[in-house]
């Protein structure tokens, strides 16, 4: 190290001048920090760490800044003083440092007891602070209960004590005392608890900090209870009894025993509050639509034990909001008559004898005549099936009736089983998959007990795996072990020809892309929750995209179009055509500049459906009037200025898609500007707000199922239903229709990708909505 008095020579390069200034600036900064710390305005360790300037031996110019321990003269890097203090002082590396407390402040409280153990390898001394309670003052530490004469017990038991030092040296240089506890290091926690008890007896009014007021405690418990209820099963009641959670509550000054309070009076009060709010919203609306979800399982291979179903009901209001109504637990799917009874009980339970307020039902049930029967019995109702289920069922139709799907499935099944079952090929595949895709899993294969044609989810998982592993399978094909297998095994030759075949990969891509196309539309429907006026355009968009798919992969259009038309007819309702004509969003500008209904996009049968549904929805006396008003609407339409205002679009900040800026404008125009249409307007406002999907939200219902399946008492079932009601109400209030488990999976996937971006293969993978 150069002398501080030596004459430094000037820098030979501008970069050196910058470096020297940076070193000096760093040194000055550390000196300033240390000066403030010594005065009691900084970290305790600066009393023992001193910044020093290291100079070049040849030029005498500063080249770096170091930290010097004033206790043992050791030199350290100055890049992280806090870490240096922890490693050198607190962990016992410094031989002259005896206490990890802050020596710069004599008023700081000291630890309860400090026991020093010799390190096994590097002769470091580690200090263990015992106990979790508030530290005791240093006089109490010197006379701690831990000051035990260990030789008394060690001599009696016939072994030599390990000389572990206890306590800290006082200012007069008192000798260290020895401690050996019969239970080993585990006794230190118990000893700390004992000392903590003594401390509490001596100072019973001592506290960790200022106590919370009663108002603060009540407010905190209210927020905690809301979070717990809205988690709805993701956080169980037993979690409230977790020791660490109860310790946290004690630390922040809240009562630790919350299980009884959260499951009784507070739950009842919260439920009553939410129930009152929901009923008020329903009462305020002139009419509503009942949404029912859960009649059909939305997964391909249902793992639902015993076929138990949990049906959830919500109420869709004209202003676009939804209100949760109830849940019904059924012992299986049940008959169509049973479903009809539950649906009608729900309607009468909401509106009593004034059943005309319920203008329709949307449900995910296809089989049976429940919806149709209720519509026939109540002429003012429009009962439709969920569009998500309709599009997903179309995938089932393709899988069952399109030969291409069967061929691709059989070939992929043969390929996947051979790769997974041959040990040397399996190891080869795992090696290359880990190398290429950073994941070493096997190819997913449907269970032999799972019907390949009916349980397409597991089949599609296999297709997806093989499609993503194109490059991996090519590398397996070129591996020497696979080449040797092909010499003797004819099945290996067949698999090799399949991997090398361009036709195999084209057919796989065709099936993969079609499922991705349809499931993508279903996903959009689930996310956007379109109104029934959107149903006809959705199916038309599907037809156009499938035509493009047929042209791209040289697939005959005829059989594909027939399957789409067959599924469309099963799902179609005449109210689709009527809502499409009456919704001002779809008005088109004619040659004269008028904005008129898009009748030209309807078939002749659909035009007839419009007349039939309109006359059914009004009384017999009004049927003639409503048809006259329909003719006037068809010829005159809406004022161009209002039509353009209704059709204004804006970009969705989440999806980036262009959407109608104010969806409520369609209904409001009929209630204000088109008041001359007395009968037609009454039908229009009741039609164009109806939603086309029953999917409202996703909640973890598993705890509800466990309670019901294990025949818990009625009180437990009621509590679970109340929690579901509170959680569902909160989700609908926030318009949060997501699934927490999906969010967690996405979060972990993003966390595992570089720069938070998904890999190209994963990003291009399709999202498949469950198929029953």
UniProtKB/TrEMBL annotation:
Residues 15-98 form the DUF7963 domain. It comes from Quillaja saponaria. Signal peptide: none annotated. Residues 98-111 have a biased composition (Low complexity). This is Ribonuclease H-like domain containing protein. Residues 83-118 are annotated as: Disordered.
């Amino acid at each position: 190290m150069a002398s501080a008095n030596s004459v430094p020579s000037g820098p030979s390069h501008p970069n050196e001048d910058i470096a020297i200034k940076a070193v000096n600036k760093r040194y000055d900064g550390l000196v300033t920090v240390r000066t403030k710390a010594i005065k009691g305005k900084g970290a305790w360790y600066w009393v023992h760490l001193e910044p020093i300037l290291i100079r070049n031996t040849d030029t005498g110019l500063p080249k770096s800044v170091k930290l010097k321990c004033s206790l043992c003269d050791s030199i350290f890097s100055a890049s992280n003083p806090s870490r240096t203090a922890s490693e050198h002082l607190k962990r016992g590396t410094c031989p002259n440092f005896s206490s990890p407390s802050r020596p710069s402040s004599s008023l700081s409280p000291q630890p309860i007891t400090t026991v020093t153990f010799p390190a096994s390898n590097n002769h470091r001394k580690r200090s263990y602070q015992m106990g979790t309670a508030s530290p005791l003052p240093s006089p109490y530490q010197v006379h701690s209960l831990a000051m035990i004469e260990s030789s008394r017990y060690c001599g009696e038991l016939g072994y030599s004590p390990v000389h572990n030092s206890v306590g800290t040296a006082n200012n007069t240089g008192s000798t260290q005392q020895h401690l050996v506890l019969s239970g080993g290091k585990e006794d230190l926690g118990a000893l700390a608890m004992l000392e903590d008890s003594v401390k509490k007896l001596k100072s019973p009014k001592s506290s960790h900090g200022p106590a919370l007021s009663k108002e603060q405690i009540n407010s905190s418990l209210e927020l905690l209870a809301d979070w717990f209820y809205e988690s709805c099963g993701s956080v169980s009641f037993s979690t409230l009894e977790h020791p660490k959670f109860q310790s946290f509550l004690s630390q922040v000054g809240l009562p630790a025993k919350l299980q009884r309070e959260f499951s009784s009076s507070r739950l009842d009060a919260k439920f009553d509050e939410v129930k009152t709010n929901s009923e008020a919203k329903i009462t305020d609306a002139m009419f509503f639509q009942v949404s029912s979800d859960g009649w059909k399982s939305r997964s391909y291979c249902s793992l639902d034990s015993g076929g138990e179903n949990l049906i959830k009901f919500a109420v869709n209001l004209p202003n676009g909001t939804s209100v949760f109504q109830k849940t019904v637990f059924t012992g299986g799917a049940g008959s169509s008559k049973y479903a009809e009874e539950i649906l009608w009980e729900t309607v009468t339970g909401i509106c009593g004898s004034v059943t005309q307020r319920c203008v329709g039902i949307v449900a995910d049930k296809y089989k049976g005549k429940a919806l149709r029967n209720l519509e026939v019995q109540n002429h003012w109702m429009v009962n439709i099936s969920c569009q998500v289920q309709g599009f997903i069922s179309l995938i089932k139709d393709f899988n069952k009736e399109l030969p291409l799907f069967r061929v691709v499935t059989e070939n992929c099944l043969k390929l996947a089983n051979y790769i997974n079952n041959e040990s040397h090929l399996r190891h080869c595949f795992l090696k290359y998959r880990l190398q290429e895709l950073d994941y070493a899993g096997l190819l997913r294969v449907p269970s032999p007990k799972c019907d390949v044609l009916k349980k397409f989810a597991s089949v599609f998982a296999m297709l997806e795996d093989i499609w993503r592993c194109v490059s991996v399978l090519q590398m397996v094909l070129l591996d020497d072990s696979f080449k040797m297998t092909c010499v003797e095994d004819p099945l290996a030759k067949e698999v090799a020809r399949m991997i090398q075949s361009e036709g195999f990969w084209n057919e796989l891509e065709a099936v993969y892309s079609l499922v991705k196309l349809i499931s993508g539309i279903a996903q959009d429907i689930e996310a956007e929750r379109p109104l029934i006026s959107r149903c006809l355009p959705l199916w038309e968009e599907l037809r156009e995209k499938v035509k493009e798919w047929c042209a791209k992969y040289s697939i005959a259009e005829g059989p594909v179009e027939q399957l789409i038309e067959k599924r469309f007819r099963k799902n179609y309702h005449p109210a689709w055509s009527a809502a499409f004509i009456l919704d001002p969003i779809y008005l088109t500008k004619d040659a004269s500049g008028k904005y008129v209904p898009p009748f030209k996009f309807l078939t002749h049968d659909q035009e007839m459906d419009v007349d039939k549904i309109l006359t059914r929805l009004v009384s017999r006396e009004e049927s003639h009037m409503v048809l006259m008003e329909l003719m006037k609407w068809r010829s005159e339409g809406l004022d161009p200025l209002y039509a353009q205002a209704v059709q204004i679009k804006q970009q969705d900040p989440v999806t980036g898609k262009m959407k109608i800026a104010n969806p409520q404008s369609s209904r409001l125009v009929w209630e204000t500007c088109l008041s001359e249409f007395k009968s037609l307007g009454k039908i229009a406002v009741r039609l164009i707000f109806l939603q086309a999907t029953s999917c409202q939200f996703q909640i973890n219902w598993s705890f509800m199922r466990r309670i019901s399946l294990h025949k818990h008492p009625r009180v437990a079932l009621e509590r679970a239903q109340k929690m579901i009601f509170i959680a569902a109400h909160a989700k609908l209030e926030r318009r949060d229709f997501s699934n927490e488990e999906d969010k967690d999976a996405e979060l972990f996937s993003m966390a595992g990708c570089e720069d938070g971006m998904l890999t190209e293969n994963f990003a291009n993978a399709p999202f498949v909505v469950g198929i029953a």
